[in-house]
Amino acid sequence: DVHVFALDSMPACHRDGGAKLARQQSWLAETASASDAALQIVLLHNPPYSSGVSHGSVAELRWDFVGWGIDLVVSGDDHIYERSTHDGVAYVVNGLGGVEAHDLGVPIEGSEVLYADKFGALFVAVVGDSADAAFVTVDGEVIDRFTIELAAADVATSATASETSQDAAAEAAESSAALTAARTWQWQLQGVLDTSFDVDVYDIDLFDSEPSMIAGLQADGRIVVCYFSAGSYESWRPDADDLAPTALGDTLDGFEDERWLDIRDGSVRAVAEGRLDLAVDKGCDGVEPDNVDGYTNDTGFDLTGDDQVNFNRFLAGAARERGLLVGLKNDLDQIRDLVDVFDFAVNEQCHEFDECEAYAPFLEQDKPVFNAEYHQRIVDDPAALCVRSRDVGLRTLILPLDLDNSFRISCDD
Questions:
Q1: How confident is the model at residue 156 (pLDDT cuts 50, 70, 90)?
Q2: d(Cα 171, Cα 324) in Å, to the nearest integer?
Q3: 124-136: per-residue pLDDT in tens?
Q4: pTM of the prediction?
Q5: Which of 317, 308, 300, 315 is nearest to 228 (CA)?
Q6: Residue 93, φ and ψ in degrees, nearest 5
Q7: For residues 110 and 86, is the Cβ–Cβ distance under 8 A?
Q8: Spatial contact of 279 and 226, defined as CB atoms under 8 Å apart
Protein backbone atom coordinates (compact mmCIF):
# COMPACT_ATOMS: atom_id res chain seq x y z
CA ASP A 1 0.00 0.00 0.00
CA VAL A 2 0.92 3.66 -0.49
CA HIS A 3 -0.28 6.38 1.87
CA VAL A 4 -0.18 10.01 0.72
CA PHE A 5 -0.77 12.75 3.31
CA ALA A 6 -1.70 16.17 1.85
CA LEU A 7 -1.49 19.02 4.37
CA ASP A 8 -2.40 22.71 4.34
CA SER A 9 1.01 24.00 5.35
CA MET A 10 0.60 27.79 5.00
CA PRO A 11 0.27 29.22 8.52
CA ALA A 12 -0.03 32.74 7.11
CA CYS A 13 -3.40 31.73 5.62
CA HIS A 14 -4.78 30.11 8.77
CA ARG A 15 -5.25 33.27 10.87
CA ASP A 16 -5.20 31.21 14.07
CA GLY A 17 -1.64 31.69 15.22
CA GLY A 18 -0.51 28.32 13.87
CA ALA A 19 -3.02 26.17 15.80
CA LYS A 20 -4.34 24.52 12.63
CA LEU A 21 -0.86 23.58 11.49
CA ALA A 22 -0.08 22.18 14.93
CA ARG A 23 -3.21 20.01 14.79
CA GLN A 24 -2.17 18.72 11.38
CA GLN A 25 1.30 17.95 12.68
CA SER A 26 -0.15 15.97 15.59
CA TRP A 27 -2.56 14.12 13.30
CA LEU A 28 0.23 13.24 10.84
CA ALA A 29 2.50 11.98 13.60
CA GLU A 30 -0.20 9.69 14.98
CA THR A 31 -1.56 8.46 11.64
CA ALA A 32 1.74 7.92 9.83
CA SER A 33 3.33 6.17 12.81
CA ALA A 34 0.41 3.72 12.96
CA SER A 35 0.42 3.05 9.21
CA ASP A 36 1.72 -0.23 7.79
CA ALA A 37 1.99 1.15 4.25
CA ALA A 38 5.17 0.27 2.39
CA LEU A 39 5.52 3.83 1.06
CA GLN A 40 4.44 7.06 2.81
CA ILE A 41 4.52 10.45 1.07
CA VAL A 42 3.77 13.87 2.54
CA LEU A 43 2.61 16.75 0.33
CA LEU A 44 3.22 20.31 1.56
CA HIS A 45 3.00 23.71 -0.05
CA ASN A 46 6.02 25.22 1.68
CA PRO A 47 9.37 23.42 1.45
CA PRO A 48 11.16 22.37 4.62
CA TYR A 49 14.38 22.51 2.58
CA SER A 50 14.89 24.66 -0.53
CA SER A 51 17.69 26.41 -2.40
CA GLY A 52 15.22 28.75 -4.10
CA VAL A 53 15.79 32.46 -3.56
CA SER A 54 12.12 33.52 -3.79
CA HIS A 55 10.94 31.75 -0.65
CA GLY A 56 13.59 29.32 0.57
CA SER A 57 13.41 26.83 3.42
CA VAL A 58 10.71 26.86 6.10
CA ALA A 59 12.48 25.48 9.14
CA GLU A 60 9.20 25.22 11.11
CA LEU A 61 8.19 22.34 8.79
CA ARG A 62 11.23 20.21 9.56
CA TRP A 63 9.21 17.74 11.54
CA ASP A 64 10.19 14.25 12.69
CA PHE A 65 9.35 12.68 9.33
CA VAL A 66 11.90 9.91 9.72
CA GLY A 67 10.50 9.00 13.13
CA TRP A 68 7.00 8.76 11.69
CA GLY A 69 8.05 6.49 8.84
CA ILE A 70 7.77 9.05 6.02
CA ASP A 71 9.78 8.17 2.89
CA LEU A 72 9.28 11.21 0.67
CA VAL A 73 8.29 14.84 1.31
CA VAL A 74 7.14 16.78 -1.77
CA SER A 75 6.53 20.52 -1.71
CA GLY A 76 6.34 23.54 -4.01
CA ASP A 77 6.20 27.32 -3.42
CA ASP A 78 9.65 27.87 -4.95
CA HIS A 79 9.30 27.43 -8.72
CA ILE A 80 12.28 25.13 -9.08
CA TYR A 81 13.06 21.44 -8.97
CA GLU A 82 15.33 20.26 -6.19
CA ARG A 83 15.98 16.96 -4.51
CA SER A 84 17.79 16.81 -1.20
CA THR A 85 18.22 14.16 1.47
CA HIS A 86 18.05 14.76 5.22
CA ASP A 87 18.20 12.05 7.88
CA GLY A 88 17.54 9.44 5.20
CA VAL A 89 14.31 11.08 3.97
CA ALA A 90 14.04 12.35 0.39
CA TYR A 91 12.76 15.93 0.02
CA VAL A 92 11.61 17.21 -3.38
CA VAL A 93 10.69 20.78 -4.27
CA ASN A 94 8.64 20.56 -7.46
CA GLY A 95 7.35 24.00 -8.41
CA LEU A 96 7.87 23.80 -12.17
CA GLY A 97 4.24 23.12 -13.01
CA GLY A 98 3.66 25.96 -15.45
CA VAL A 99 4.16 29.39 -13.86
CA GLU A 100 7.49 31.13 -14.55
CA ALA A 101 10.51 29.55 -12.91
CA HIS A 102 12.30 31.20 -9.99
CA ASP A 103 16.00 31.86 -9.65
CA LEU A 104 18.25 29.30 -8.04
CA GLY A 105 20.26 30.17 -4.98
CA VAL A 106 23.33 28.59 -3.42
CA PRO A 107 22.65 24.86 -2.94
CA ILE A 108 21.74 24.04 0.64
CA GLU A 109 23.49 21.25 2.52
CA GLY A 110 22.09 17.92 1.38
CA SER A 111 21.05 19.19 -2.05
CA GLU A 112 21.65 16.59 -4.77
CA VAL A 113 19.79 17.91 -7.85
CA LEU A 114 18.93 21.57 -8.55
CA TYR A 115 17.17 22.64 -11.76
CA ALA A 116 14.91 25.39 -13.14
CA ASP A 117 15.22 25.41 -16.94
CA LYS A 118 11.97 23.76 -18.08
CA PHE A 119 8.55 22.84 -16.70
CA GLY A 120 7.98 19.23 -15.76
CA ALA A 121 6.43 16.71 -13.41
CA LEU A 122 7.50 14.15 -10.82
CA PHE A 123 6.49 10.53 -11.51
CA VAL A 124 6.54 7.90 -8.76
CA ALA A 125 5.86 4.20 -9.42
CA VAL A 126 5.97 1.41 -6.84
CA VAL A 127 7.48 -1.77 -8.24
CA GLY A 128 8.14 -4.73 -5.97
CA ASP A 129 10.19 -3.67 -2.98
CA SER A 130 11.14 -0.22 -4.25
CA ALA A 131 9.64 3.01 -5.56
CA ASP A 132 11.11 4.51 -8.73
CA ALA A 133 10.82 8.29 -9.05
CA ALA A 134 11.77 10.60 -11.90
CA PHE A 135 11.42 14.29 -12.72
CA VAL A 136 10.63 14.58 -16.44
CA THR A 137 10.38 17.80 -18.43
CA VAL A 138 7.50 18.59 -20.78
CA ASP A 139 9.64 17.53 -23.74
CA GLY A 140 10.50 14.18 -22.20
CA GLU A 141 13.97 14.83 -20.79
CA VAL A 142 14.70 12.98 -17.55
CA ILE A 143 16.40 15.45 -15.20
CA ASP A 144 16.46 13.31 -12.09
CA ARG A 145 15.82 9.67 -11.28
CA PHE A 146 16.03 8.07 -7.84
CA THR A 147 14.88 4.96 -6.00
CA ILE A 148 13.35 4.59 -2.56
CA GLU A 149 13.81 1.18 -0.96
CA LEU A 150 10.63 0.16 0.81
CA ALA A 151 10.29 -1.44 4.20
CA ALA A 152 8.19 -4.58 4.49
CA ALA A 153 4.66 -3.46 5.24
CA ASP A 154 3.42 -6.35 7.36
CA VAL A 155 5.35 -9.58 7.77
CA ALA A 156 2.35 -11.39 9.20
CA THR A 157 0.67 -13.53 6.55
CA SER A 158 -2.91 -14.68 6.90
CA ALA A 159 -3.73 -18.37 6.74
CA THR A 160 -5.72 -17.81 3.57
CA ALA A 161 -2.84 -16.05 1.84
CA SER A 162 -0.46 -18.78 2.97
CA GLU A 163 -2.71 -21.51 1.63
CA THR A 164 -3.09 -19.66 -1.67
CA SER A 165 0.67 -19.35 -1.97
CA GLN A 166 1.13 -23.05 -1.20
CA ASP A 167 -1.49 -23.99 -3.78
CA ALA A 168 0.23 -21.85 -6.42
CA ALA A 169 3.58 -23.41 -5.57
CA ALA A 170 2.14 -26.92 -5.80
CA GLU A 171 0.55 -26.18 -9.17
CA ALA A 172 3.80 -24.68 -10.44
CA ALA A 173 5.77 -27.73 -9.28
CA GLU A 174 3.34 -30.06 -11.06
CA SER A 175 3.56 -27.99 -14.26
CA SER A 176 7.36 -27.88 -14.00
CA ALA A 177 7.55 -31.68 -13.80
CA ALA A 178 5.32 -31.99 -16.85
CA LEU A 179 7.39 -29.40 -18.69
CA THR A 180 10.62 -31.28 -18.00
CA ALA A 181 9.14 -34.32 -19.74
CA ALA A 182 7.88 -32.26 -22.69
CA ARG A 183 9.37 -33.25 -26.04
CA THR A 184 7.18 -31.51 -28.61
CA TRP A 185 5.81 -28.01 -28.96
CA GLN A 186 3.96 -25.60 -31.22
CA TRP A 187 4.70 -21.89 -31.47
CA GLN A 188 2.14 -19.67 -33.16
CA LEU A 189 1.68 -15.97 -32.44
CA GLN A 190 -0.31 -14.81 -35.47
CA GLY A 191 -3.34 -16.00 -37.43
CA VAL A 192 -6.15 -18.29 -36.38
CA LEU A 193 -4.66 -20.70 -33.86
CA ASP A 194 -4.39 -24.28 -35.08
CA THR A 195 -5.11 -26.43 -32.03
CA SER A 196 -4.87 -29.76 -33.84
CA PHE A 197 -1.19 -30.51 -33.21
CA ASP A 198 -0.55 -33.43 -30.87
CA VAL A 199 2.21 -31.76 -28.88
CA ASP A 200 3.14 -31.30 -25.25
CA VAL A 201 3.41 -27.50 -25.20
CA TYR A 202 1.61 -24.65 -26.98
CA ASP A 203 3.29 -21.22 -26.95
CA ILE A 204 0.67 -18.62 -27.93
CA ASP A 205 0.01 -14.88 -27.69
CA LEU A 206 -1.21 -13.69 -24.29
CA PHE A 207 -3.45 -10.90 -25.57
CA ASP A 208 -4.95 -12.69 -28.57
CA SER A 209 -5.85 -15.95 -26.81
CA GLU A 210 -9.19 -16.34 -25.06
CA PRO A 211 -9.43 -18.20 -21.73
CA SER A 212 -11.73 -20.76 -23.34
CA MET A 213 -9.08 -21.59 -25.94
CA ILE A 214 -6.43 -21.96 -23.25
CA ALA A 215 -8.71 -24.20 -21.20
CA GLY A 216 -9.45 -26.29 -24.27
CA LEU A 217 -5.77 -26.90 -24.94
CA GLN A 218 -5.22 -27.84 -21.32
CA ALA A 219 -8.17 -30.23 -21.44
CA ASP A 220 -6.33 -31.98 -24.28
CA GLY A 221 -3.29 -32.37 -22.06
CA ARG A 222 -1.26 -29.42 -23.36
CA ILE A 223 0.89 -27.07 -21.29
CA VAL A 224 0.02 -23.52 -22.36
CA VAL A 225 2.75 -20.87 -22.38
CA CYS A 226 1.59 -17.30 -23.04
CA TYR A 227 3.85 -14.93 -24.95
CA PHE A 228 4.18 -11.20 -24.31
CA SER A 229 6.89 -8.63 -24.89
CA ALA A 230 8.45 -7.41 -21.65
CA GLY A 231 11.17 -5.26 -23.17
CA SER A 232 9.52 -3.53 -26.10
CA TYR A 233 6.67 -1.09 -26.71
CA GLU A 234 3.89 -2.26 -29.00
CA SER A 235 1.41 0.56 -29.61
CA TRP A 236 -1.49 -1.78 -30.36
CA ARG A 237 -1.49 -3.47 -26.96
CA PRO A 238 -4.35 -2.36 -24.65
CA ASP A 239 -1.97 -1.37 -21.84
CA ALA A 240 0.54 0.48 -24.05
CA ASP A 241 -0.49 3.89 -22.69
CA ASP A 242 0.51 2.79 -19.19
CA LEU A 243 4.17 3.02 -20.19
CA ALA A 244 5.84 6.34 -19.40
CA PRO A 245 6.77 8.29 -22.56
CA THR A 246 10.30 8.60 -21.22
CA ALA A 247 10.59 4.80 -21.15
CA LEU A 248 10.25 4.52 -24.96
CA GLY A 249 13.52 4.19 -26.83
CA ASP A 250 14.71 3.43 -30.35
CA THR A 251 12.91 1.13 -32.77
CA LEU A 252 13.79 -2.55 -32.91
CA ASP A 253 15.90 -3.64 -35.86
CA GLY A 254 13.51 -5.28 -38.32
CA PHE A 255 10.39 -4.33 -36.35
CA GLU A 256 9.70 -0.68 -37.09
CA ASP A 257 6.42 -0.68 -35.14
CA GLU A 258 8.17 -1.63 -31.88
CA ARG A 259 10.43 0.42 -29.62
CA TRP A 260 12.84 -0.69 -26.95
CA LEU A 261 11.92 0.06 -23.34
CA ASP A 262 14.01 1.45 -20.52
CA ILE A 263 13.82 -1.59 -18.24
CA ARG A 264 14.94 0.56 -15.29
CA ASP A 265 11.71 2.57 -15.48
CA GLY A 266 9.04 1.79 -12.89
CA SER A 267 6.22 1.88 -15.43
CA VAL A 268 7.87 -0.91 -17.43
CA ARG A 269 7.89 -3.19 -14.43
CA ALA A 270 4.34 -2.24 -13.52
CA VAL A 271 3.09 -3.11 -17.01
CA ALA A 272 4.98 -6.41 -16.92
CA GLU A 273 3.33 -7.31 -13.62
CA GLY A 274 -0.06 -6.42 -15.08
CA ARG A 275 0.60 -8.80 -17.97
CA LEU A 276 1.60 -11.55 -15.56
CA ASP A 277 -1.68 -10.98 -13.72
CA LEU A 278 -3.50 -11.26 -17.04
CA ALA A 279 -1.73 -14.58 -17.68
CA VAL A 280 -3.01 -15.85 -14.35
CA ASP A 281 -6.53 -14.60 -15.05
CA LYS A 282 -6.57 -16.33 -18.44
CA GLY A 283 -5.32 -19.60 -16.98
CA CYS A 284 -1.88 -19.79 -18.63
CA ASP A 285 0.53 -22.37 -17.23
CA GLY A 286 3.56 -20.26 -18.00
CA VAL A 287 4.84 -17.18 -19.78
CA GLU A 288 7.44 -16.28 -22.40
CA PRO A 289 8.56 -12.66 -21.83
CA ASP A 290 10.26 -11.44 -25.01
CA ASN A 291 12.93 -8.83 -25.77
CA VAL A 292 14.86 -9.34 -22.56
CA ASP A 293 18.31 -8.75 -24.03
CA GLY A 294 18.06 -5.03 -24.74
CA TYR A 295 21.44 -4.30 -23.21
CA THR A 296 23.08 -5.93 -26.27
CA ASN A 297 21.09 -3.77 -28.70
CA ASP A 298 20.86 -0.11 -29.68
CA THR A 299 17.97 0.79 -27.39
CA GLY A 300 18.58 4.51 -27.00
CA PHE A 301 19.37 3.92 -23.32
CA ASP A 302 22.63 3.25 -21.53
CA LEU A 303 21.61 -0.20 -20.28
CA THR A 304 24.18 -2.44 -18.63
CA GLY A 305 24.41 -6.17 -18.22
CA ASP A 306 23.55 -5.73 -14.54
CA ASP A 307 20.41 -3.78 -15.50
CA GLN A 308 19.33 -6.69 -17.68
CA VAL A 309 20.05 -9.38 -15.11
CA ASN A 310 18.12 -7.43 -12.47
CA PHE A 311 15.14 -6.97 -14.78
CA ASN A 312 15.11 -10.59 -15.91
CA ARG A 313 15.34 -11.80 -12.33
CA PHE A 314 12.46 -9.50 -11.48
CA LEU A 315 10.37 -11.07 -14.26
CA ALA A 316 11.20 -14.59 -13.15
CA GLY A 317 10.42 -13.86 -9.52
CA ALA A 318 7.15 -12.10 -10.29
CA ALA A 319 6.04 -14.98 -12.52
CA ARG A 320 6.90 -17.64 -9.98
CA GLU A 321 5.15 -15.71 -7.21
CA ARG A 322 1.99 -16.10 -9.29
CA GLY A 323 2.49 -19.83 -9.80
CA LEU A 324 3.56 -19.40 -13.43
CA LEU A 325 6.35 -21.18 -15.24
CA VAL A 326 8.69 -18.70 -16.89
CA GLY A 327 11.00 -19.02 -19.87
CA LEU A 328 14.19 -17.13 -20.72
CA LYS A 329 13.99 -15.80 -24.28
CA ASN A 330 17.38 -15.72 -26.00
CA ASP A 331 19.83 -13.60 -23.86
CA LEU A 332 22.50 -16.26 -24.32
CA ASP A 333 25.33 -14.34 -22.67
CA GLN A 334 23.53 -14.30 -19.31
CA ILE A 335 22.29 -17.87 -19.22
CA ARG A 336 24.61 -18.92 -16.40
CA ASP A 337 23.46 -15.94 -14.33
CA LEU A 338 19.78 -16.71 -14.89
CA VAL A 339 19.31 -20.46 -15.38
CA ASP A 340 18.47 -21.06 -11.71
CA VAL A 341 15.48 -18.71 -11.74
CA PHE A 342 13.95 -19.74 -15.09
CA ASP A 343 12.08 -22.97 -15.82
CA PHE A 344 12.80 -23.30 -19.54
CA ALA A 345 14.35 -21.42 -22.44
CA VAL A 346 13.06 -20.27 -25.81
CA ASN A 347 15.72 -19.71 -28.44
CA GLU A 348 15.74 -18.41 -31.98
CA GLN A 349 18.36 -19.53 -34.50
CA CYS A 350 21.07 -21.02 -32.27
CA HIS A 351 21.76 -23.60 -35.00
CA GLU A 352 22.04 -20.94 -37.68
CA PHE A 353 24.52 -18.93 -35.62
CA ASP A 354 26.28 -21.92 -34.00
CA GLU A 355 25.29 -20.90 -30.47
CA CYS A 356 23.38 -23.93 -29.16
CA GLU A 357 26.18 -24.98 -26.79
CA ALA A 358 25.31 -21.94 -24.67
CA TYR A 359 22.21 -23.80 -23.47
CA ALA A 360 24.16 -26.53 -21.69
CA PRO A 361 23.28 -25.06 -18.24
CA PHE A 362 19.55 -25.51 -18.94
CA LEU A 363 19.99 -29.02 -20.27
CA GLU A 364 22.20 -29.99 -17.32
CA GLN A 365 19.31 -29.09 -15.02
CA ASP A 366 16.77 -31.00 -17.14
CA LYS A 367 15.13 -27.74 -18.16
CA PRO A 368 13.80 -27.85 -21.73
CA VAL A 369 15.13 -25.61 -24.47
CA PHE A 370 12.59 -24.83 -27.20
CA ASN A 371 14.37 -23.77 -30.38
CA ALA A 372 13.04 -22.20 -33.60
CA GLU A 373 14.92 -21.85 -36.89
CA TYR A 374 13.87 -19.72 -39.86
CA HIS A 375 16.57 -19.74 -42.56
CA GLN A 376 15.49 -20.94 -45.99
CA ARG A 377 18.39 -23.37 -46.37
CA ILE A 378 17.22 -25.11 -43.20
CA VAL A 379 13.64 -25.16 -44.47
CA ASP A 380 14.83 -26.77 -47.69
CA ASP A 381 16.99 -29.42 -46.00
CA PRO A 382 16.26 -29.89 -42.28
CA ALA A 383 17.43 -33.49 -41.85
CA ALA A 384 21.02 -32.94 -40.71
CA LEU A 385 20.05 -30.11 -38.38
CA CYS A 386 17.32 -32.22 -36.79
CA VAL A 387 19.78 -35.00 -36.08
CA ARG A 388 22.13 -32.54 -34.35
CA SER A 389 19.25 -31.00 -32.44
CA ARG A 390 18.04 -34.34 -31.11
CA ASP A 391 21.60 -35.32 -30.17
CA VAL A 392 22.03 -32.14 -28.15
CA GLY A 393 18.58 -32.41 -26.55
CA LEU A 394 16.86 -29.35 -28.00
CA ARG A 395 13.20 -29.24 -29.04
CA THR A 396 13.49 -27.73 -32.51
CA LEU A 397 10.87 -26.33 -34.87
CA ILE A 398 11.51 -24.87 -38.32
CA LEU A 399 8.97 -22.10 -38.81
CA PRO A 400 8.08 -18.97 -40.79
CA LEU A 401 9.53 -15.80 -39.26
CA ASP A 402 6.00 -14.40 -38.83
CA LEU A 403 5.06 -17.40 -36.65
CA ASP A 404 1.72 -17.59 -38.45
CA ASN A 405 1.64 -21.40 -38.95
CA SER A 406 1.88 -21.09 -42.74
CA PHE A 407 4.23 -24.09 -42.49
CA ARG A 408 5.76 -26.16 -39.71
CA ILE A 409 8.62 -28.67 -39.63
CA SER A 410 9.32 -30.41 -36.33
CA CYS A 411 12.47 -32.34 -35.50
CA ASP A 412 10.64 -34.27 -32.78
CA ASP A 413 7.15 -35.17 -34.01
A1: very low
A2: 9
A3: 888 777 888 889 8
A4: 0.62
A5: 315
A6: -100, 120
A7: yes
A8: yes
